[in-house]
Specification:
Strand content: 5-15%
Structural class: alpha/beta
Strand order of the largest sheet: 6-4-5-7-8-9
Helix content: 40-55%
Shape: globular
Distance between the termini: 16 Å
Order of helices and strands: EHEHHEEEHHHHEHEHEHEH
Number of strands: 9
């Protein structure tokens, strides 16, 4: 089984690396990628940790280096996955630092919005947020729940956090990300192009137009199998990928307990790739 889209505690996932690897095995997955938001730190940690590397090899797992950058293109929010690259590459570190600086400004913006709305975070919540590499919406939601302002994280997101409007400059430019990472040999993929959780859906025709433009920048693949997509949506995306000569990938977008999506869930209705449809050995060259 394959799952090329999941998150650890290095972004907004709930599982640390040892737990995530254990859960990958429990889910029956043999080929996976950790694609934390805006950082490849998980992969740098794995490459520097002999015990983790030994564990992955002993379990006969195939690990593909990955990252998911939060981007914007012509005012549209898009998520660009990148695979099969050196996580220590200066281009990767540059994009991470650039995004980190943008996120620090975004953190100030939304923490101010939270305070101005009358939600005063506890010292415990402030300490937790300060410990995060990148503060995500789920982190804020959990803090607001812990501090007694909302009954659950979905309520916090839907009734308040989702309504905070952010300037587009808090995200990286999709063209810059695709071109920069393609230049160092990474395979860039457009993640959940139709829609992600709590995202406004695009039509297949809109996806095709944008994917065509992204291919000019170097886009190599399209995430066609995804936990929210049914067989008709998957087929539509696969047709676009075939037309544009993009390889296809499959991912759950697992976040552990932070999202109700299990590892290995790559469609909403059980649709799965046919045998050999996603050949990672042909797509990727750097597999641990």
């Amino acid at each position: 089984m394959i799952d090329l889209h999941m998150h650890s505690t290095y972004s907004d996932g709930k599982d640390d690396l040892p737990a995530l690897i254990d859960n990958v095995v429990s889910a029956g997955i043999d080929t996976f990628s950790i694609t934390d938001h805006d950082t490849a730190m998980a992969h740098r940690e794995i490459k520097n940790n002999k015990e983790l590397l030994k564990k992955i090899k002993s379990l006969n797992l195939k690990l593909v280096t990955g990252v998911e950058f939060s981007c914007v293109y012509n005012g549209k929010k898009v998520h660009i996955l990148a695979y099969d690259f050196d996580p220590f590459a200066k281009e990767v570190l540059f994009l991470e630092e650039k995004m980190s600086n943008l996120l620090k400004e975004k953190d100030k913006y939304r923490l101010s919005a939270i305070e101005n709305a009358g939600y005063h975070l506890s010292e415990h919540s402030k300490a937790f947020l300060a410990s995060r590499i990148n503060i995500r919406k789920l982190d804020l939601a959990n803090c607001l729940v812990d501090d007694g302002y909302f009954s659950n994280k979905d309520e916090a997101i839907q009734t308040f956090l989702k309504k905070i409007k952010y300037p587009s400059f808090f995200k990286l430019d999709a063209e810059e990300v695709i071109r920069s990472l393609t230049k160092i040999g990474a395979k860039t993929v457009w993640a959940h192009s139709l829609h992600g959780i709590n995202e406004k859906p695009l039509s297949l025709s809109e996806v095709e137009v944008l994917a065509t433009k992204f291919k000019e920048f170097g886009l190599a693949g399209l995430e066609c199998y995804y936990s929210l997509y049914n067989s008709a949506e998957i087929l539509g995306l696969k047709n676009i990928a075939k037309k544009l000569n993009l390889f296809i990938t499959a991912g759950s977008d697992y976040h552990g307990k932070n999202k109700p999506i299990p590892l290995g869930m790559i469609s909403s209705d059980g649709t799965a790739p046919s045998l050999g449809e996603i050949d990672v050995n042909k797509i990727f060259t750097k597999i641990d």
